[in-house]
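User: Hello, can you help with two protein structures?

Assistant: Certainly.
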Amino acid sequence: MGRYTTVQAYADNSGSMRAVSYDQATGSATAAKPAERGPVVTEKVDNPYGSTAGAGSGEFHVYRHARAREMARWKEINANEAEMKAEEEFQKKIAADARAEQEKTEKRRRKREREKNAKKRKKNLKLGGVALDVHQEDDEGNDTDEFEYTPVASLEMKPTSGVVKSEDDVTDNCDHRKMEDSTHSRPKGDASSPVEFPSDGSFPERMKKQLASA
């Protein structure tokens, strides 16, 4: 079947067809004058297809276009949802950064307030004739919330007098102290208790010094 061809649905002698003459269709049989003729009125067909008619050649294209429209609609919905989620995450990040910055600003404000009060207190004490200690002034001037860690080993290695000990002397003293503690803690006659030896490589040098002094 061609694209622009037509098909006759009923035969000419079918009982469902109504025979209308040309004069009756044009109104020339009843009209007296041509000016009084009205337009040609045709019968309206409400159901051009039968109930058992199959799909035509254009149904697939109609379905294809409808499917494309539906897929485009869902694509737009998904894109809008992704954009909303990204915007929500961005707003949450902005709020978190704003809270963190506000906390830092408040912390710095409290620090400036403490320094201001310390300077005012020191000024009032000086006006009253009260002398402040040097360490006290330094503590008031350097009021910070930061924690400073001092290792215990550095405290033990600090000299108690004006004599500065070398690193070898400090190591020998520590090893000697460990051996004395192990000797006192070990009961008499107990030879099974092992003697602790340092693992830092200073044991041979210490033994040489002990043999030389003996």
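That covers the first. Now for the second protein you mentioned:
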Amino acid sequence: MQKLALPLETITFSGELQQLVPESWFDDGYILDMDHFVETISCIKSKGFRPDLIGSFITKFAYKFLPGLSGSGDERTIANLEVSPESVTTSWMKKRVFVETLVAILPPEKESIPCNFLLRLLPIANMVGVDPLYRDGLEKRVSWHLDQASLDELMIPSFSHTCTTLLDVELVLRLVTRFVHMNEAARSGAALVKVARLVDWYLAEAATDSNLTLSQFVALATALPSHVRAADDALYRAIDTYLKAHPGMSKQERKSICKLVDSKKLSPEASLHAAQNERVPIRAIIQVLLSEQSKLNKHIDLGGSFRGTRIPNPQPLEPLDACLSMNEMNAQQMEIKRLKEDVLRLQSQCMAMEGQIERLLEKKKGLINWKKLVNFVKS
């Protein structure tokens, strides 16, 4: 296979980068000589092209020749350059060198490479076993854009022999930790909220794996500050999924995982579900009920203060305005009444559950005493 004989110094750069790069540059000869490709990138950089255009050139090169990035099914890939059985190891080594070279020549600017490309490149880098230095650099770049990631892109399988989970939870934890510890000027509060939502969705998927340990779940759930979650409904769903997939958890373990949820941040629907959930410890249910009671009291106080407000020299209301005010007050009273009924129902269910637990404990205590008596008689 003959490589293009095109001296780099004779290349003239004009127009967009997509126009200046001939399709013939992407033939197999250039893949076999990564040094020449690196020289080409260096030449383009020296001409002062924008980092995003350089990144576009690199991603086009990678999509064409690296399997798993584009899913186009193109047979002219680096994995198929050698087809003989004895070349499997050689092909694997070439793939690793290819990925390491890509990571090394990426422009340093944050917005030069799209997030979805980096997230597709990351699992391939882990699969071929790139040097930790390159892997660390790639993870750092991904963490810059973590708020732009989707759940599907974050579902990266684990390629480590020491990892027992299907998903690479430790990798996601490293990405989230890096993102949180970024300079505050480099990330916004809105980005933190997006990542928190993404983490809760990811936890709900990862929680179905029976090999996911409690410490892994807790570490990822607490990797973000608690104040960035406006609501804890998604986190509660993830915890409930984990409790379903791990029925053998001890009472103390269930208590510790349920402490992750702030009951004050649960919606009425999530609170009702938690209060009726047999997998949730009694103490956590009581906390949910107390939070709902507190919310109800606030509603009542607001309603009372609204009715007790006196406006000096009030102007007479028009009939339509008076009608609207009465409608609003009636709607508020109906909402308060509904909340009261919900709280009373939840309290009744909680008391019934406590009674059942007490009866079970009494039966267990009686059984233990009976066994002691039998052993005493036998002795």
